[in-house]
Amino acid sequence: MGAGAQVVALYVLTLWVPGLVLGGLAGLRGWTLAAAAPLLTYAVAGLFGPIFSAIDIAWSPTSAGLLLVVLSAGAVLARFGIRQRFGPSDRSGPPVWALWVHASVAAALGAVVVFGATVIWSGLGQLSAIPQDWDAAFHANGIRWIADTGDSSLVGMAKVNWYENGVEVFYPNAYHLVAAVVLRITGADVPTVLNAQTVLLPGMGALTIVALVYRFRGRAVLAVAAAACSVAFTSFYDMLWRGPLLPFVTGAVLMPLAAVLLLDVLDARGLRQIGRGLLFGLGLLGMIALNPATLFTAAVFVMPAMVQRWVGQPRLLLREPIVVLAAGVVAALLALPQVLGSIGSASGEPVYDWPAELTQSEAFGELLAFAHDGLRPQWWLVLVVAIGIARVGRLGALRWIFASGIAFGTMFLLAASSDETFVNTITRPWWNDQWRLIGLCVVPVAVLAGHGVAEAQRKVADGIRALAAKVEAGPPDLVDLAGRLVATGLVLTLFVMTSEYLYLGRNVARMRLAAPDGPVVSSLEADAMRVLATLVPPDQRVMNDRGDGSAWMYAIAGVHPVAGFYNFSGIGPDALLLNTRFNSYPVDRSVRAAVARLDVTYVMLGRGFVRTDWRRAPGLLGLENAPWLQPVYRNKDAVIYRIKARPG
User: In terms of DSSP bridges, do strands 638-643 and 600-606 run parallel, antiparallel, or are they unpaired?
Assistant: First the structure.
C-alpha cells in the first residue's frame, strides 16, 4: 500500500495545487476554491493541451509546470491591477457557518473521503490491478501515448488504434493529460495511475456537494449528511467497475460546480462580474474537456436553480439570462476545439441504442428502491430520501434540486424501458445508457437524503431542547448548542450503523467486479506483454486479437499492437484484413503485404475476451499448428509467436 499511497498523494498534489493557485488568485475562496481546484486544473489542461500540440510543444511535467508559473504570474499581475483600479473585493455579510462549524465539517468530510477511497481500494484489492471492462484499455493507452510522445492533441492518443490512412478520431483529453503528468512524475505503471484517480472520485464528489450546500446557504449538518450519503449509493460505484467511465464520472462529480460558479457570476456586481464570468466559462471548459456529456448534465442540473431564482425574483429576468448567455459564449470560445470536435464526432458516428432491458414498472421500482441491476433495495437511503422529499420546503435555496433529480430519474426510466426514437434522441448525450443516467441521480438524491437526515437531526435537537427547558438544564444558548451537537452525533451514528456502514460491504463487492485477475487481462497475460517488450523493436507492431485483452500491451509494456482497442469502427484496411485473414499468410500475397506495411514480426494471443460471447478472430484461428510461426513464449493465459519468414 505504501507505493500506491504515494501515487495517490502525488495525484492529489497534481490535481489540486494548480487549481488552488489559479483559483485563489482569481478570487475564489473557501469551499468553492477547494472543490473547484480539480476542475480548474482540468480546464487549464484542456485549454492548453491542444495549443501546445499546435505550436509543437511536448506535453510533460516540465512544460506543464512552466505553464503554471506563467499563468500564475499573469494572474498575479491581473489581480494587482484590478485591486489598484477597483479596490479589494467586498466580502462583507453574515457568514453562513461559524469558524468552528467549518472545522467540524472539514473533519467529517475527511472521514467521508477516507471511507470512499476505502470502498474503491478494497474492491480493487491493489492499486496496480488492471480494470477489465471496455473503456479502461482506451484510457490506459491514451495516458501512455501522451506520456511517451508528448502529443497533447485532441486526436493524438487515439492513434494507438486508429493509425492508418491519416484517420483522425477526436476524444477530449483533459483527464488523460493530467494523468500523463502523474505517470511521468511517479514512474508508476499505467493501471496504478488509473486507479489512483479512481480512489479520489468519491471524496471529490463529496467535497463538491459540501461546496454546493454551503454556496446555497444550507445547514452544516445537511452538507455532512449529503456528503456521507453520496458515497453510499451503489449506482455511483457501478459507473466505476462497468467501463470504467473515468472521464465521465470525473465530470459528473464536478458538475454541481456549474451551479456554484454560475451563482457567483449572477451575484457579482459591476466589472467584477466579468471576472466571475471568465471563471464560470473556464469551469465549463473543464467539464467539456473531461467529457462533452458533462455540459449537458450541468445544463439539466442547473436549469431548475435558475427557474427557482427567477420565479422568486422576476425582475432578475431583465438582465440575468443575458449574463448567463454571455458566460456560455465565453465557455464556447474557450472550448472551441473541443466543441468543434464533439460536433464532428457526433455527426460522423451512427447513433448507438442500448436496448431497453426493463419494463416501465421494473425501471420505476429500481429507481425508487435504489436497486438497479436487480440488487437488494437500499432501504435506509429510501427512508431518508422520503423524509427529505416530504420536507423539501425546508431546503430553502436548494429546493430546486428535487426537480433536477426528477429530470435525471425520468431520463433513466425512459432509457431503461423504451427503445422509441424520441427516447434515443433525448438521451443521446449520455449514449442512451441507463447505467450513466441512474448514476447521475446520485448528486441530487444524495442532497435529498442528506436533507432527510438533517430534518431528523432537527427533530431530535428540538426534543432535547424541550427536555432541557423542562428540567432547567442551564443557559439556553449553551443548552441549544449542546442539544444540536448531541442530536447530530446521535442521528448520524444511527444512520451509518443501521445502513451497514453506508452499505460498505455491498459497494466493495461491486467494485470487486472492476479488476479481478482476468478474464480479459490476467497477471499472466501482463507478464507476456512485458516479455514482448524485450523482443519487439520500437518501430514494429504486434499482431493481436481485437477481442482479447492484448490491446493493453501498449499501456502495460509500451509495445504497439495492430489492434489497439476493441472497437472495429473506422479501423484501417490492413488491420481489418489481418483480423479476418492473417492465418492465410503463407498463401495470400495481400496478407503478406499488409504484414510488411504494418511491420509485424510477432503475434500475441490472450485467453479471455472482453465480452463473454466473443470468440477468436477468424484470421487468428488455427495458429497453434502453423508451421510458419515459432512459439517463443507461452504461459497458461497467453502465447507469443514469431513469424519465421517475414517478407522484406
Answer: antiparallel
